[in-house]
Automatic annotation (TrEMBL):
Domain of life assignment: Bacteria
Domain NADP-dependent oxidoreductase: 15-263
Lineage: Bacteria, Pseudomonadati, Pseudomonadota, Betaproteobacteria, Neisseriales
InterPro entries reported in the protein's UniProt record: AKR, NAD(P)_OxRdtase_dom_sf, NADP_OxRdtase_dom
Record-given protein name: Aldo/keto reductase
Length: 277
């Protein structure tokens, strides 16, 4: 498995697994758990979840999927912005740990920026690290100006990641956010890397897919992780999708492919506000 290095020096898989909308329907539960476990078997051992997903039901499902396998996984969860006060962050983390049936998170993210001052959330995150409840912390959905502000409160490279919406149809972060992160050796974690299954499966993606004998979604995923500083977390509740996603790591997009994709999905030439789902 290709890896990406966090500022702490820890290496994590370049391809992980998302979980949004899992655990919401009883009838799909067994398949979702099997899909996550299959992904772990294939080396996609970074699992991303959040207290928001399914109002806690997703974390419960992830906890079930990880029974007996917790140590194989780099587990990521997120705190709601309105819970991200000094006290609230710690309480939310305890609730997540309970639902996930574990004693620690590997990475805990502020889900998006709310009204709580950064210094309070950072203080709570650092206390959780000191207590061994989380190994590392990071943020999500923060644009470049927010990141500058966050860094004013930081002593060194404490923030491990910024998780943002990034895929072929959402290239905004390439304008300045991704270079900002690269300069600080902080990876970007790309969420909705295949635009929730809605990347246009015709045109250039279809042509390149036919050339490589893969699907357009695999090409779209391969494109996201072409960058060594990016981790992608596709969500797949079906085992066949999990296997296809893992196989996307083996696709070698060439210069011609990349030029075709650039023509159809141009890189931004002006700053646009960070999009979020
Ligand atoms: P996504 O991963 O881009 O797309 C998921 C959809 O694509 C599902 O419907 C899935 O179907 C389908 N799919 C997966 N692999 C496929 C394949 N190989 N071929 C065809 N279809 C495929 O969207 P996402 O779930 O929004 O994003 C991924 C994860 O990022 C989330 O689950 C969540 O963990 C995280 N996220 C974070 C934020 C944030 O604010 N920080 C926001 C959104 C998402 P099946 O499930 O039926 O297999």
């Amino acid at each position: 498995m290709k890896t990406v290095t966090l500022p702490s020096g820890v290496k994590v898989p370049a391809l992980g697994q998302g979980t949004w909308f899992m655990g919401e329907q009883r009838s799909r539960r067994a398949d979702e758990i099997a899909a996550l476990r299959h992904g772990i078997d294939l080396g996609m051992t970074l699992i991303d979840t959040a207290e928001m997903y399914g109002d806690g039901a997703t974390e419960e499902l992830v906890g079930e999927a990880l029974q007996g396998r917790r140590d194989e996984v780099f587990l990521v969860s997120k705190v709601y912005p309105w819970n991200a006060s000094r006290k609230g962050t710690k309480q939310a983390c305890e609730r997540s740990l309970k639902r996930l049936k574990t004693d620690r998170l590997d990475l805990y993210l502020l889900h998006w920026r709310g009204n709580v001052p950064f210094r309070d959330t950072i203080a709570a995150m650092e206390e959780l690290v000191a207590e061994g409840k989380i190994r590392y912390w990071g943020v999500s959905n923060l644009d470049t100006d927010d990141m500058d502000e966050l860094y004013e409160h930081l002593d060194g490279e404490r923030c491990q990641i910024n998780q943002v919406l990034y895929n072929l149809t959402r290239r905004g972060p390439e304008y300045d956010l991704m270079s900002w992160a690269r300069e600080r050796r902080m990876p970007v974690m790309a969420y909705s890397p295949i635009e929730q299954g809605r990347v246009p499966a015709d045109g250039a993606l279809a042509d390149i897919a036919a050339k490589h004998g893969v699907s357009p979604y695999q090409v779209a995923l391969s494109w996201v992780i072409r960058d060594d500083n990016v981790i992608a977390i596709p969500k797949a509740a079906r085992a066949e999708h999990v296997a296809e996603n893992r196989a996307s790591l083996d696709i070698m997009l060439d210069d011609e492919d990349l030029a075709l994709l650039d023509a159809e999905f141009p890189a931004p030439d002006y700053k646009m506000p960070l999009e979020m789902l």
